[in-house]
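Do me a favour: review this protein, sequence plus structure tokens, and tell me how the chain folds. Record follows.
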Amino acid sequence: MDILCERCKVGIEENRFNTSRRCTYCKGQLLNAHCVNCHQNSENTNVFDEITPLYHYDGLIKTMIHQYKFLKDIALAQVFSYYLTIPFSDYDVIIPIPSVPSNDVERTFNPVATILEMKGLQYSTCLKMYDRPKQYQLSLNQRKSASNPMYFKDEINLENKTILLIDDIYTTGSTAHHAGKLLKSKKIRKLNMLTFAR
């Protein structure tokens, strides 16, 4: 069953992620063969075994994410779940990046968890996030200097597990790496990151 018109399908395909001229680690844009993002956030490197973005955060994808997250159009979860492909098959646990609780209350849903539920994927909500300012309101330096807002909801044994961490948008990578560092403290075996848009 088609859930989008041909024009929207084309718009989504136009934003499928292209790894050419991208950092091999964070998939950020390269400037003179150097990754500006990794250079500015050197403490974030080597947390993940692999970071995989599905789409560029541009065009129709950017519009759809804005409408979904900030205009609270939960119907778009069906579209995102349709286009969400999991490139890894050897994971033990899927963990969505948590949202600030007050944002979920205001929005009435958790963006990442809702997509996973619609996709029919099992996931763990072991990670939670303290209240903090919205990331788009912060400068790069403020994001870098912020303390880790993540914590474990309950005691969980992840030792020797392969974890797939999923988020909707990866920009500077601060949020993802905060979560990754916390997960690494559990002596996990492997940590991959999947983001819908980069």
The chain has a mean pLDDT of 90. Residues 68 and 76 are 6 Å apart (CA to CA).
